Amino acid sequence: MSHTHAPQALTQALPSYLDPNHLGPWGIYLQQVDRVTPYLGKLARWVDTLKRPKRTLIVDVPIHLDNGTVAHFEGYRVQHNTSRGPGKGGVRFHQDVTLSEVMALAAWMSIKNAAVNVPYGGAKGGIRVDPRQLSLGELERVTRRYTSEIGIIIGPTKDIPAPDVNTNEQVMAWMMDTYSMNEGATATGVVTGKPVDLGGSLGRREATGRGVFTVGCEAARRIGMDIKGARVAVQGFGNVGGVAAKLFAEAGARVVAAQDHGGTIYRAAGLDVPALLDHVARHGTVKGFADAETLPDADFWATPCDILIPAALEGQITEKNAGRIQARMVIEGANGPTTPQADDILHDRGVLVLPDVIANAGGVTVSYFEWVQDFSSFFWTEDEINARLVKIMKDAFAAVWQVSEDNKVSLRTATFIIACQRILHARDLRGLYP
Ligand code: NAD
Question: Which of residues 187, 217, 240 is at a domain's end?
Fold first, then answer.
């Protein structure tokens, strides 16, 4: 009997959730990979590696609620690619989290980590839960049980979680403690974004917003836009959007509009950003901020502005609102905020889009610094951290800009070209096991 088979006979059809026609973030990611494949040369033979997550874990997370009943939540951890190093990516607590979304977010982490050349693959996690409905004790129990369940695949040299939407330093502290208790030794390097007193890094909390600001300034310089006096609109006033707004305001820009899950506010003369941050810290939303008018949420997208920063969730800029956007530049603080159709509309209208995979890479860059500091137990000053962050972001952005000019492609495709080449080159060098 012959042992030779036609290659097609051995290649299984993609499972339905990996199907490129599948709508949603994973489908969008697959389209982005297809756009870049013609630029990959011989490495294109490995491109299917990028179209399947390496490892996908779905876990049941049961906890005792305060009222004595037991509730079950679904949790995920996806390791998309580990060719360049351990998995790395945040954990999201949100009622709408799905496996497909976590897969896309993990894949974008692979791209992002390669784009800024930190030695990580890509991963992401999440729990399908609305944390606002939980007491603090319930939140801690959900976090600890989830960490214990994914403990079989995470670790300081395997996969290192970090904060994302609705998770913060306290959640990271519980994750670190749970993993450490199970291991029998304190393992600070298992997560990043921890409190500074527990092996966290100075500058981590602000890092993503600082990266958004840095690439925004770099791009503005190249298109002749003055940051001083520029009007900025920000969607999402959390870790990313709040910090980016603060830095732009400090640089003399006018933050004219802010939107979050609670509502939309506007002030043509510029919002008082420190006062707004204080309001959000006390009330959890921009809604109700004095000294601003309230806008219907849909009008946020038509706000007269020069810079638009989506920093909330994915799929926010669509073919429905892209035509109304006034900004000259969109800086993607969030992951996946722009659909491919909207991307094309913005491109045709001459709006420059700084893609998530480079624009919000500041967070993982300082997470890398945190991880390095944890391994060496030697901690750097905030000035050192910020200087290294700004240098990495500027260099990475300059490389993306160059590839974009050389190939006459968008900054998104340029970032994917650089990143996919790095990932697939590593894949090629390592070869296939066994
Ligand atoms: P966060 O929880 O601190 O803030 C999220 C913000 O989005 C809040 O202001 C919330 O009110 C707002 N929001 C939620 N739903 C909304 C809706 N339907 N409409 C308008 N606003 C809404 O989260 P974050 O850490 O700032 O993350 C925001 C985005 O940035 C996410 O896409 C995340 O993946 C991405 N990101 C975060 C980091 C990081 O270091 N935290 C790094 C890279 C990318």
Answer: 187
